[in-house]
Amino acid sequence: MAIQILTITAPADKYDELLITADRLDQAKYISVVRDHYETWTLLGAFDAHQCVGFLRFVIQILGAEEGRTPIVQNNRPLREGYVEAFGVLPEYRHQGIGQCLQERAIERCKEQGCFQIRSRSPVTSVENYALKIKMGYAIHPDHEHDAYYFIKTL
Asked: What pTM does this model have?
């Protein structure tokens, strides 16, 4: 089965397909979130010949901006990060490398945009996501406020 990873913009034919998949995985509410501290956002979709089977949405932001923190400056520039807002693969398509391909594409894009790190947060019930992030070399930190874990990877 050939899976194609595409960058999706709204409105577009593939955007609606992606929203259907995100809705099935209870992630649709995160697909179009815009906050003042976002510099940019990117939506990636994984498609087979028939449908969207997975997605990943990440934003680029100054590290700590969402908490109102003073930026950490290195080489006269504030450190930036990629933050994964939404990520999912349909259950029947898991364990085929699709999630890893989406994550790798996000990492590439974050590096291209000069990010220091990539970060995400997952609820304590996302065991399959944990295995993928550990395999990919992410560090883990508990988030007691949201009953979740943060995953952070220096780029």
From this structure: 0.92
